[in-house]
Each structure stands twice: as C-alpha cells, then as structure tokens.
Amino acid sequence: MRHICTVSLLLLGFAAKGQTIALPDGEYMDTTSTRHSPCAKAIMTRYYNVAGKYPRSSETLRQAAQAFLARQHRAYQGSGYVTFRFIIDCQARRLPRVQVLQTDAAYQRYHFHPELVSELYGFLKTLTEWRVAKGASGQLVNYYAYLSFKITDGKVVAVIP
Predict the structure, then answer these.
(1) Is 90 contained in some domain?
(2) Which of 38, 90, 94, 99 could form a disulfide with 85 if both were Cys (CB 3.0 to 4.6 A apart)?
(3) 110 within a domain of the structure (yes/no)
C-alpha cells in the first residue's frame, strides 16, 4: 500500500509540471483540463474580435521575458519563433491546454531546445493580467490568444502578443 501511495504522489508531482506531447498536427504543453467550469458553455472567439490582447507593451514583455531567461543561467541557440496558442476563459484565466508552434527565421518548421521552450512557457505562466472579454451582445466569452517569442541567437528579441 505504501508503494502505491508513493507512486501516486510521484505521478501527481509530475503532472503538476505539465507535459509536452508531440502529435502529427502539432506539439502541446500542459494538456490538463478542467471540467465543470463556469465558462464551459461560453462562446469561443479570437482575441482580436474582443480586444483580448495582453495589456502590456511588446517591449515590456520582451524585457521581462529576457530577464526571466537570464535568471536561469543557461545559454540557448537558434533563431526563429516560438508561439504559444491557448484559451483565456470568460473569467480571464489562461487554461492549461497550450499548443506550441515553432519555426525558424524563414518560417519553416523547427524545434528549439526543449529547455528553452519550457522556460518560455514558464514565463507565459507568470502573465496573469488577461482581460475578461464580452461578445457583441455583451455576453462573456472565451477566446483564443497567442504569444510569440522572436528568438535570435537564443535571445528573445521581440514578443508579439
């Protein structure tokens, strides 16, 4: 019995870190989901239909992302884009189902070092000022949001919300 409890605790700890799943149609991180959410029946739309852009400037986000990475004391390589696609629910919370898109500087499929992608995802998780969005008729909506990191020689040179 003790062995089962230990294994269960280990699995719970592993799940809390999120996971990366690569499928033919894309790569996903932290695929946990929440059921019975008060937003489960809300209409889904895109961020640009409801002014759902993150409320900080791209330059502010770039500086914060680069500082976040610098605290990890790791050197990364590669140039291109890492884009996270996720849902902000009707209560302005980011849901933990995140699609990861990676391209090189010429917009061709590319894979950055997994630790870099993980660190960028860690930075995304620190962003908590998402906006509640309302549809045309005033009802609360869920919306797809994107956050892209432009990487040059392993450094964040731009963040595109």
Answers:
(1) yes
(2) 99
(3) yes
Domain residues for 32?
A: 18-160
How many domains does one find in the chain? 1
10 located within any domain: no
Do the domain assignments include residue 92? yes
Q: Tell me how far the alpha carbon of residue 53 is from its chain's centroid.
A: 14
User: In the structure, what pLDDT confidence band is assigned to residue 71 with cuts at 50, 70 and 90?
Assistant: very high
pLDDT on residue 38: 85
- Put simply, whether the predicted model's pTM sits higher than 0.70 gets the answer yes
d(CA 18, CA 103): 22
